[in-house]
Specification:
Elements lengths: L22 H14 L3 H15 L5 E5 L5 H10 L6 E5 L2 H11 L8 E5 L10 E7 L10 H11 L5 E7 L5 H17 L4 H11 L8 H10 L4 E8 L2 E7 L2
Parallel strand pairs: 1-2, 1-4, 2-3, 4-5
Antiparallel strand pairs: 5-7, 6-7
Bound molecules: S-adenosylmethionine.
């Protein structure tokens, strides 16, 4: 099936509203994320394999900020017939609606339960795997430690946190180098200068990226000792952190 093309920022918007995960975004989400996040599919695929490896029978997987379920789809393939339970949480009603519609016809789809909720408020019950993809960046920075602390305390021993984030570099020169390659990537994927600049402006103060060091410091601060930056592409980074 042809996915609808993301043309949200193709015409000039005045005023330009802050970015949100509304129905308009949900409709074009797959096209938007694939053209905006380098190595998106590769990351999900390897994370699904990691989740399959770290999952402890009888426990739960949580996908926090699950959107319309792209991780869940790959996880179903990776798990095959194995039994598991995943709670997939997002506070965007149209995202959860799209996820449920997608799961309904799938054999074995009942192993995943999409839930409309705030990840900052949910209680995590017995997780051995927590996924946090491109979502921590949308929380106010001063509230990030609390979520990460909650994840670390809830994880079972040997459990894993898999996290991807858009990042910045601490050195201004390298930060602009990353930006340059990132905007080239968007151009290569068909986004115009207007689309790139309007999206950047709409995300200002909505998506607040941190450095790799900030993320590693936080992971250590909340208790993780085994941390790996397993994938990095300029201003995108994927981490895994195992609870000892
Ligand atoms: C960039 S998308 C995540 C992409 C998704 N993880 C994937 O891999 O396809 C960020 C998601 O986080 C959700 N989100 C942001 N803040 C949230 C919160 N406090 N609670 C629940 N979901 C949240 C948004 O609704 C959005 O669907």
């Amino acid at each position: 099936m042809q996915m609808p093309k993301d043309t949200i920022f193709s015409l000039e918007k005045k005023p330009l509203p802050p970015f949100e995960f509304n129905e308009q975004v949900v409709r074009v989400f797959d096209d938007m994320i694939e053209r905006s996040v380098p190595l998106y599919r590769e990351t999900l695929r390897r994370q699904a394999e990691l989740a399959t490896y770290f999952y402890q029978q009888g426990s739960r997987i949580y996908d926090l900020g699950c959107s319309n379920g792209n991780f869940g789809m790959v996880l179903l393939q990776s798990m095959g017939a194995r039994s598991f339970e995943m709670c997939a949480i997002d506070n965007s009603a149209p995202m959860i609606d799209a996820y449920r519609k997608r799961l309904a016809p799938l054999r074995g789809g009942e192993r995943i339960r999409p839930l409309e909720a705030d990840i900052q408020k949910v209680v995590l019950e017995n997780p051995s795997v927590v996924i946090l993809n491109l979502t921590l960046q949308f929380l106010p920075p001063q509230e990030r430690d609390a979520l990460m602390g909650k994840i670390h305390s809830a994880l079972s021993s040997g459990g894993v946190l898999l996290m991807t984030e858009k990042i910045i570099h601490g050195a201004a020169e390298l930060s602009s180098l990353q930006q340059r390659f990132y905007y080239d990537f968007k151009r290569e994927n068909g986004y115009s200068e207007l689309e790139i600049s309007q999206k950047r402006e709409a995300l200002e103060n909505v998506l607040i990226p941190e450095t790799v060091e900030d993320h590693c410091d936080r992971l250590r601060r909340v208790g993780f000792r085994k941390i790996d930056l397993w994938l990095k592409w300029f201003n995108f980074a994927s981490f895994l952190a195992v609870k000892g």
